[in-house]
Amino acid sequence: MATMRRKFTFEQKALIVLGILKEDKSISQLSSEHGIHANVLQTPASVFTA
Asked: How far apart are CA 13 and CA 9, in angstroms?
């Protein structure tokens, strides 16, 4: 049986991106905390820091 795909709310996504922008933790640390692959967080990080 296939697993259900997780859905993040806008607020959850915003908190993760804000964590990237604060630069308190690395992208790999945030991705492991939230159970997301680091490549998924790389795109928003590059958009907002450019």
From this structure: 6
**Global confidence as pTM:** 0.65
Q: Tell whether 4 is covered by a domain.
A: no
What is the tally of structural domains in the chain? 1
Q: What's the CA gap between 48 and 22, in Å, rounded?
A: 11
Does any domain span residue 2? no
- Whether residue 28 lies inside any domain: the answer is yes
Q: Report whether pLDDT(17) > 80.
A: yes
- In contact, 36 and 12? CB cutoff 8 Å: no
Q: Using CA atoms, how far apart are residues 27 and 38, in angstroms rounded to an integer?
A: 6
Contact indicator for 42, 27 with CB cutoff of 8 Å: yes
